[in-house]
Amino acid sequence: MKKKISITMCCMTAIAVIITAIAISLIGYCKNYDEMKKSIKAEAEYVAEAMGSKNKAYLDSVKNITPSRITWIDDSGNVLYDSTGEELPNHNDRPEVVQALESGSGESSRLSETLREQTYYYALKLNDGTILRMANTTNSVYKDIFSTLPYIIVIIAVILIFTIITANNETEKIIKPINELNLDNPSSNLKYDELAPLLIRIEKQNEDIEKYISRLRAKQVEFETVTENMSEGLIIVNKKANILSCNKSALEILNDGEFNYTNKSILDLNHSKSFIETAEAAVNGKHAETELDIDSRSYMIIASPVMQLNTITGAVIIIIDITEKKSRDELRREFSANVSHELKTPLTAISGYAEIMKEGWAKPEDFRKFAEKIYNEAHRLINLIEDIIKLSRLDENEIELNRESVDILELSKNIALRLDPKAKEKNVSISVNGKSACISGVRQILDEMIYNLCDNAIKYNNDGGKVNIIVKDYTANVSVTVKDNGIGIPAEDLDRVFERFYCVDKSHSKESGGTGLGLSIVKHGAKFHNAKINIDSTPGVGTAIEIVFNKNIN
């Protein structure tokens, strides 16, 4: 700005000086020229008056006292006398002579071929019809102007230097307040009234920008709060596959949480082929999905392109942990297979015995035996179906029974009483110890949980074995432990005994009529009551399973 102002002022100064110099030269020239014309006219009239009938001798005497050129011409244009002494041609075509012959006087001006001089001619008609012409030469206006050019240049140079200095100083004074404007508070800078509209607009724009930034910050905080607390991984990339945003879950899943993704490509985040191909497909405008296994967990990678005005601007990649889903699917498949197998076994037995009886292959004395076999297998089948229904209801949380205060000691004694006949058949003693302890729960489910634990303890016990139910009342918890001195459970099977249809000793389970669902019902019942299960078992020594209930569960 300062440079532009200085150049403008210098140009205006130079133009002004040149125009002024030319104007002064023209005015001076015109004034001198007019004075010269008046002088020549007066001189011509004087000479004409004084000349009378005198001849050339008079004109010779006059030429020595006047700088003007004197020419005497007859009425035919012939030159009778010229003060320069030159032989001149006929002058009847000269403008001033023609005018003088016609009107008594005439004048004209002629420039030299070099334009450096201008000659003024004045012709006056005498009484005898001849023409007296006087002329004088002066510098032309062009010569006057060019003669002053060096002075003009010097003056322009001096004035330009002064102008530059003045322009710089004045520009600095003008610009300084503008450079020192407080744009955060424009209204405090009102030094020039002319800046008021601009400052008002700046202040209004500052307010609008601040509001816009506040909204953006709020949205950013909201976005970060949502994305950072997502269990799913979220990655946003631009069209060059450079990472724009990556939440904590994505970093933990793909790179153990240690990765500075700023200005990095998504291809640096994980080097697996399926992940790279999925990301590249999304950046190229195609929706893509793939599964990725990382550290024994399974993830679904879903990548979708982001389009704006039919142009790909980037992609969004979501990472979902599907480990539990795959596990449930696997368990469901196993459950379906196990149910099919477990149902098929008693049905096959029932069908076989029935076919033998139907075809008459059985002896009459064996009918009772076969009928008992059919009854036992049918009873086992009914128990299996009932257990499956119970598990299904627990899985779907479809228990509609109301919670109530249940005394675990009293419930345990009742269960021990019901199982006592079965225990005596196995030559196993069952006892209950502890003191009264109440919790809030569903009596039927609690009954099934403790019943299944005691039933298993009887089934998988030795001849003459013992089953002890121990109830303990703590400040915040109530525990019930079913302890036996039976066959025990191997260490490698402890983590699986609560799985559906899992039996440590399948042959023993068949003999005892077990369905393999008892401990699974216990596990789901504990989950329903928000209880904790502890198991301790040693093969050949016995097993102790403890269920810990929270007194404050609702």
Quickly describe the structure.
The protein is an alpha+beta fold and 554 residues long. It has helices spanning 2-51, 56-63, 95-103, 141-147, 149-179, 196-228, 248-255, 273-283, 323-359, 367-395, 408-425, 443-459, 506-512, 518-528, and strands at residues 69-73, 79-82, 105-111, 117-125, 131-139, 233-238, 243-246, 288-294, 297-308, 311-321, 404-407, 429-434, 438-441, 466-473, 477-484, 532-538, 542-550. The chain has four domains: 2-147, Beta-Lactamase; 230-321, Beta-Lactamase; 326-395, Helix Hairpins (Orthogonal Bundle), CATH 1.10.287.130; 404-550, 2-Layer Sandwich (Heat Shock Protein 90).
The tally of helices reads 14
Give the number of domains.
4
Give, in spatial order, the strands making up the sheet with the most strands: 2-1-5-4-3
What CATH architecture of the largest domain would you give? 2-Layer Sandwich
Structural class: alpha+beta
Low-confidence stretches: 506-513
Number of strands: 17
> Which fold does the CATH topology of the largest domain refer to?
Heat Shock Protein 90
- What fraction of residues sit in β-strands? 15-25%
> How would you state the average pLDDT, rounded?
78
Indicate the radius of gyration in whole angstroms.
63 Å
The major β-sheet equals: 5 strands, antiparallel
Helicity level: 40-55%
Give the C-level CATH assignment of the largest domain. Answer: Alpha Beta
CATH superfamily of the largest domain: Histidine kinase-like ATPase, C-terminal domain
**What is the end-to-end distance?**
79 Å
What gross morphology would you assign?
rod-shaped
